[in-house]
């Protein structure tokens, strides 16, 4: 087998950690000796052993003289776990093949340098694009300290996210909705505006087996979330954070008693300051957010520059009338003032389409 083929196995292993490693990366490692895979491992859970150490621990024969294929540059610092470069050097591994370089300032090429300086042959950049894509969220978070934000919405072919009576269940079919739940498993948090809470009373949990729930965030400037909203009454199954500008402790109390967390933020143009919210979330280890806002919150988020990717599900239906659209707010005057997005990646979920575009910063 070739380097690329072994790296593909390491990539598949890395994906098994999806949803459980945040805010750390998904990493997989394969150890090969005399053309045979003798050990495999992946990073299973945040704070636990790294992929390299798991692969070494799983070796069925001595790794001395073997090659290690790892999707991310091995770390050379002591964090919650000791440096993986130490484990590699102690094991007698002779060659290390790497997918992505680690942009973590504590690593940043120093892992590769250290291995080389100790006489290990290092090959980097094997399946680099795939390895980088797997950890897009980690790369953003470790470099910016704020979460990677995707704005997600489902609309009809005439651009409506609800009918004229405000109903929106359901626009897309089951296959597309399953993909939405996979994202809820993977992303650390999900965020809606209080308008959506009042209109739809959403639960915002992940309904897949062996999954985890994202932190549920409500942008609620004046603290208008009803105390009987599902997001308030179900804090036993998933955490809820109310982001508000209301400083009245008496108003906070019933939400706190119901198990919600409250984050008080400054106001900007009549709403909570979303940039401050992102900084506060980053400090709480939240590396990624799905924004399931209504049109107003989506507009504010775009204007504040916090959106990294737009996910548009399109169902082959037409609603007509005055139903809501995904991005509302004040809008722009002239097409040259538009928010620009990258060429969309397209995928199909039965009859529905998903378009994914990165927001281009000018
Ligand atoms: C992981 N899993 O498999 C690899 C990581 O605090 P620590 O000790 O867990 O170190 C976290 C850093 O280690 C992380 O930011 C990344 O730079 C590096 N590699 N991390 O969680 C792994 N290989
Ligand atoms: Zn490590």
Q: What can you tell me about this protein's structure?
A:
It is a single chain. By secondary structure, the protein is α/β, with parallel strands linked by helices. The chain is built from 12 helices and 16 strands. The chain has helices at residues 3-15, 51-57, 84-91, 110-117, 128-134, 136-144, 174-186, 194-200, 230-233, 249-257, 274-283, 295-304, and strands at 28-33, 36-42, 67-72, 95-100, 121-123, 148-156, 189-193, 215-219, 240-244, 261-264, 267-268, 271-272, 288-291, 309-315, 345-349, 352-358. The strands form 3 sheets. The chain has a 9-stranded mixed β-sheet with strand order 10-9-8-7-13-6-14-16-15. It has a 5-stranded mixed β-sheet with strand order 2-1-3-4-5, with helices on both faces. β7 (189-193), α8 and β8 (215-219) form a beta-alpha-beta unit. The chain is elongated. The mean pLDDT is 96. The chain binds ligand AOF and zinc ion. Zinc ion binds next to loops.
